[in-house]
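Lab channel / #folding
Pinned by the channel admin:
"Please post every new chain as: sequence first, then the structure tokens as a reply. Keep commentary short and put observations after the output so the thread stays searchable."

First post following the new format, from NK:
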Amino acid sequence: MSATLTDRYIAATLRGVPAEAHDDVRNELTGSIADAVEARIEQGESPDEAERAALNELGDPAVLAAGLADRRLQLIGPRHYLTWLRLLRLLLAIVPASVAVLVALGYAISGADVGDIIAESIVSGITAGLHVCVWTTLAFAVMDRLGAAGSPRWNVDRLPENRSTGRGLADLIAVAILMPVAAFAFVWDRYFGFIFLHGEAYPIWNPALWPWWMAAVFVLFAMAIVVQAVVFVRGRWTTRIAIVNTALQVMGASWFLTLLGRGELFNPEMLEVLMVESGVTSETLRVLAVVFGFFGVCAIAAGGIIDCWLKTARDARTA
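Reply from TO:
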């Protein structure tokens, strides 16, 4: 004889219940289902329809078994969830980007192609992010199952301080001062130089960059001041302003990295004198250039982009 729906339901429920509780659960479920079926038959339903409706009302036997066994159907409970989420966000903001930069730097120093550098850094960053998610979640799941204590009880002393959204006058003043100072430094370097060897001054930047390459830099400086002025006038960051600022950061970084990759950024006469005077090899100079590009230009551009989008998000929330 084939098993009835009730028999199959009880058997499925018992799979998730400890063996010592099987008899009690079987007897309780059998009685409850029988009462529910009988009540529905009295209301005019057929026995088959009544049985099916009663079992549907009880729901998934795995969920019922978990409730009977006092077993949580969750990977991480509320006691640890917020701590897990905050830590995961922090690690994802730091680890993948750091790994990608270090891998790219290693491949660049080894002389790999640009395509290989980009591909390997992206793959490494994604892999690092996956590892962060898996191992962080696994650690908290184990803590939750072992019953480890959660975070301390919350109180008002843990409220974060209100942070400036960056729409004040300070940012405009800072940019309005720094950009002209940087432009003046480029002009001074062109005509007077910053490197002095044997009584002779050498420009750091390649004189061949004048006038057009340097004109592009000065245009970017001016546009950066305009962006901060618009933010100050509007009183907040907007998505459009953030996009323009991101484009400026990318163009500025591209300017440096393009010339750096082509070997046209620094003054060749200065490099030659440094190599002769200090014994520095061309390979060492190449490594220093790579370090300068990744940790200087890219870090500054990335910082500017992240900062403007964070301010945009905060201003959108407070608008």
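NK: The mean pLDDT is 80.
TO: also worth noting, The CA atoms of residues 62 and 217 lie 66 Å apart.
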